[in-house]
Amino acid sequence: MFYKSISKVYDDIFPQNKSQLDFINNLKPIAKAEVILDIGCATGNLTDLISKCTNNVIGMDLDSDLLKVAKSKYNNLSFIEGNMMDIDKIFTHEYFDRIISFGNTLVHLPNRNNVKSFFHRVYNTLKKDGLFIVQIINYNRIIKNGINELPIIDNDSITFIRDYIIHNGWIDFNTKLKIKGNGEILENSIPLLPLTEEEIRNLIEITGFRNLKFYGNLKGASLTDNSIPLLFSCIK
Question: Which InterPro entries does this UniProt record tie to the protein (predicted)?
């Protein structure tokens, strides 16, 4: 329900960010013939950027309202509604050259067993030497420093306040969104799974991926406990 309620202003909160594409290309330049899946594509902004490099990109999201916005903006691109846990059912074995998941999508899974299962499904859906790239919040930083809020997003269209409550291995992600055009205020709370670098490393290695690397920003800096995002890449 939350993403349905913010779908019309999603791009005001999270506008298109070319630095994401630069990061992906710096890991390995996208070849024109590559087949790429963008999981958690939301309103399609990263999918659109990737489409400048290859004609074979698919955006996938669970939320139909976000996808409706994506399809209205980028009607020349392919988008499908689906659960990330079903990618090996939706697509055939070794279908993709690259699978990407940005925007903290991974930590919406309900438990660590699901994360492990998802990694296996990604592995099976990637071609040999395929690349898996993920971006989430750096929860090492959140937990170690007891951080209970993220920076407020404020612009001409919206004010977006984001608070964290850490308890029992979970984070309650509480948000308050004010839409300035009509004064509407939307409040929401969703649980997030605060995956740490060590947990990701263990789960990725169990799955069979190789060349796992962590990064602390979109410029490719090393990950530290003070990095705000956590990004990682690995190869099948």
Answer: Methyltransf_25, SAM-dependent_MTases_sf
